Amino acid sequence: MSQMNTHCPQISLFPFPLTENELSWEASDWESAWDSGENKEEGVEEETTGQKEPWLQDCVVSLSPCSDLLVVARQQKAVFLSAKWRTDDSGREEMTLAVSWTGTLSTDEGECVSSSICIPLASQKRSSTGRPDWTCVVVGFTSGYVRFYTENGVLLLAQLLHEDPVLRLKCRTYEIPRHPGVTEQHEELSILYPAALVTIDGFSLFQSLRACRNQVARAAAAGSDVIQPPPLAYKKWGLHDMDTIVDHCSVGIMTLCVFDQMKNASILGGFNASVKGNPPAMSQYVTVGGGPYTGFYYAVEGSTQPLLSHVAMAVASKLTSALFSAASGWLGWNKHKNEEEAVQKQKPKVEPATPLTIRYGLPDSRRHGESICLSPCNTLAGVTDDFGRVTLLDLARGIAIRMWKGYRDAQLGWLQVPEERVDREFSPSASLPRRHALFLVIYAPRRGILEVWGMQHGPRVGAFTVGKHCRLLYAGYRLMGVNSVTSKGWQLHTQQVCLLDPITGALRTVNIPFHLALSDKKSERAKDLHLLKRLTTLLRSRGVEPDILESEAKSALLDIKHPAIKKQALESLLSNKNAPVSCLTNITCALHDTLKQQDPEAVDIELLQLCSSQLKLLQLYTDIQQLHSTADIEACSKNVRGHTHAESLELCSCVSSAGNFMFWGCLCGKSPLHKVCDTLQQAGISPQQLLSLLLSVWMQREKEVLQKPEETVRNLHTLLIALSNMPGAVEESWDSQSISPWWQQVRCTCIQSHNAAAALLAAFVAHRAAKASITSRADSKVGKSHLQSEWEAVSLDLEQWSVCVRQLEDVLVLQTLLLVPPPQGAAGGAAAQCSIKTLLEGGTGRLLRKISSGIYKQTKLLVAVCQRFPHSLSPDLLFAHCCWEYVVQWNKDSEEGRYLWCAVEHLKLVSSPHIQLGISAMMWSTFIVKRLSAAAYLMEKASHLHILRVCLCWQDIGMGDKAVTSFLGCCVRLLQILMEADSAVEEVSAPELSVEEVWCGAEGPASLAELALEQKGVHYPLVQHHCLLASLQHAAMTFSLKLKPLSLFDSKGKNAFFRDLTTIQLMPSGDMDPGLVSIRQEFLLRVLTSWVQAIDDPSSSASADWWPSLCLELGSLLQVNPDILRRHLVCELYNQGLDLRAEEAREICEVEDKDVLGSQLLVLTGQRLSYSLLHSQSQTQGAMELLARLPPTLCTWLKAMDPSELRCPLVPLPQTSRLVGRLIEILPENHAQYSLGLHLLEAVEALTTED
């Protein structure tokens, strides 16, 4: 038993502290109990009643069988904890269960949570390998309701099947039959009430839950909150003839043999009973409680029809969804609207139960059952009672076959363990189907002990001391939605039994080896494992004398029979850092001699090869140890001895330590180079492996190498020459015009290394050594002229070395740029590493992606990199990749609108319209269009929602109000760039992309520029149509105006939105509906008014000077009379008191209908004068006299004016006088109000003169 599997991390409940990673067999006092076959009684005193129990004891706890979701509920509230990876302080990754949702589950007054289970639902995708698609949380309440939730606490559906409290929820899922003839069980969910049992068909439940979950997502996206889920097919049985029922288990469908059928017929029907020809299939249910203590019920299949119950409640809303109106089928989803409303208004109808009488039971008037736990094979069940007994039931025969005493408040679980492959190889039944062992896990909280018992009459194979307040979590099911077809090739990642410790917050799984189910006499493996455990304990002990350690370890190692376990024991011994080298050598030599003396056919070849290789390694270690200085020995020996357990001479698992031990002293000049090389050659290690070790230590210790480059480079050259002169290094038949495998190995190491500086130095050294080797081989050939020797010296190897050196120089400059830390506040992650291999495999775009991620770094280094990559880093490609990097960063954190703004700015800098067009189209389809459509639909319904709800809606698309405004502005600019690029494509030819000569071998995915050039052309009117929508949305969000953007377009316009920009859509044409044009005009007028009001705040984006021109442009596209917009702008500026800007706007806009403008300005002037003469608190005597001298018509007209409509009534009189003058110029003399204007001019001049 262990806390988790060896390949699974520990799961803990955050923020509880973590416990030890393993609960090992030898961690307790009873470790040898199962060896001797004697079960010792644990003398643990029962817990005192005065001690306060943890809060978890009062909670309803359920764990998903996949261990990825834990539900803790108490009364009305619940907490959902989901599995997440995290890194602890030591850098080790571990799985934790962190809180993912908290809230109140109860909806009816007075109801509490009484039971819950977590059901993982299988994925229907073909690529699925057994992981769940999602997990449904099923919760039962004391009101009788059963509600189904997602992992995020979203209510999918609720069901009232009975009006009594829900006692227990249990699930049964599909299991692959292990033997032919075994009845295939159907999936189902069973719900126990005090006097009723409801079983819901698993297929019906699976389809309903998937439909509800999909519908919830669609309803949220479409703006509707109500769902109409399908009905559930269920059966309801009334359990009679038992006084009390507290727990149950649904065994499944079974068929009696002919003899049992005749026996039951004669007992139930008497002498004259008739027997059917075929035994009927029956569903077996077992209940526990009182009177009788255990009851067995049998329901004949087909005796009652399944009920279809309509869901009482889905999501708390009064809206009606029409998304399910088109769905039909056997579930009967098509319901009239009146029926749906009636279901929501009144309490659901509860169907009566079908009576089901007890067939037989285990009567015991004083004993009351507390729980029942069904075995995975559906043949056994464990029952706990109030007498502290655990009873094992044979469900087929209906009898108790075993009982354990002294387990009060016990909790049960089952483990079914398949036979291991190693066991089957040595099993006499290897040709038979794979065997399975069954174990019963009993947790006794009063004693704080967890026990494991073999079935049916096996001994106790394990016992563990745990806390007294733990919870044993046993699901008894796997994934729902799996069948015999979809489960082929799946590996179901589920845990059978888990132990939750509320004190430490640790969640432990119970894992039992198969061999523990076998008796000691028949299981040599059990004995071997015991010897391995004894050896492991000996190696962990400190202070053991070397002689005792050698004799004990040798004895245990030689006594082990199985080669696999013997190999594991030898590796454990060799990996021990405390054992002396002489001890390891003697034990390995003894094992090697023993294997040599055995029959060659009976000896395991891999084990013999391991012993031989380890002896050579140990001897090599001893020899090199003598060559090193004493200081180097003390520094390196402890590190290397821990890695002498390599399985072969390839030293793949200990390259770092072995390389440091062998060569670092030589590279530093502290060890004799030639003696070390001679020793390595005598050890029988191939030169290729030594070369790999040498290059590995050279690359890994780059910093130390660069501290003393001259000395280390000189020693590297000496070592490289010495290794290349070893037999077997460079082939004698090697032709200088072909590739040498020896030098190719050096090049491959340099190409793959991320340490560019060390790789470049190694390449220089190897290039020189290779050139000297080629020259010497050419000179040694007889009969060659001096000229011919010079031509041969220029070989294919040297050409590849030149290319490799040039590539490494490029990589070094690039890596230097990437290692420069970003400026403070810049979004930079971990320093990106690169090598020749990663750049070649990543294609031509890999280099640009790395550069664009570091564009904000030092300019000089960037210029240097661009000079080395003139083609790959051309300005257009660099700007394009920078644009893409910024938009990717924005997609990760959409609240940071500056990333998207920077992306658009970089896109503007791309000079090629072809690349600009492709990048824009890719950005639109990949990142923009979905968010823009979501924003449009949310704005469409925003006028009906509360402001808080609107904020939540913005959060649904991952952005707040400010971020949405910035996003819409960037959308407008992006679509404008797209239209400009589409217009310029035909005028310029597409650019030709090229790569530097030394990087022509790059492979991998196409670069961003290549993808951009492959994009299809866009439909300009459709792009303009979307730009119009985005502009309207941007204006509405900037000025906080309510707008239904889609309502400003007709049906053709709405259907064209959010389509592929490369397609030709049916666009709006002709004259638009006047009512629609009026709505558009009203919105644009409000935008102009809001802009005028925002002018006083220059820091706001709403005060930008381009808003009026944009409104006029939008007006022309929306068929709004632009002259109305111009006049409104001029009047609003005068209304705001901005007379100078109003005059500029009047001149720029060139208002056509000046008569109307004059009339509007005349009213505005009258309002100003009326305020000064009639409504101002600082009225002067002269003003009053002037008012008396005014003509009666003018005076009456001024009194009719309403100055409250002015936003800035206190305007200097000279400005008003100037306005009246402009007004007289605008109005023609034959205008009806021309004389009124003259009177106004006289009144203003008189008032000005008096002031």
TrEMBL record:
The gene is rab3gap2. Residues 55-473 form the Rab3-GAP regulatory subunit N-terminal domain. One of its GO terms (molecular function) is GTPase activator activity. Residues 29-51 are annotated as: Disordered. GO terms for cellular component: cytoplasm. Transmembrane segments: none annotated. Residues 689-852, 858-1228 form the Rab3GAP regulatory subunit C-terminal domain. Belongs to the Rab3-GAP regulatory subunit family. The keyword Lipid metabolism does not apply. It comes from the Eukaryota. It is found in: Cytoplasm. Keywords: Cytoplasm, GTPase activation. It holds the Pfam family RAB3GAP2_N. Coiled coil: none annotated. InterPro entries: Rab3GAP2, RAB3GAP2_C, RAB3GAP_N. This is RAB3 GTPase activating protein subunit 2 (non-catalytic). The lineage of its organism: Eukaryota, Metazoa, Chordata, Craniata, Vertebrata. The keyword Transmembrane helix does not apply.
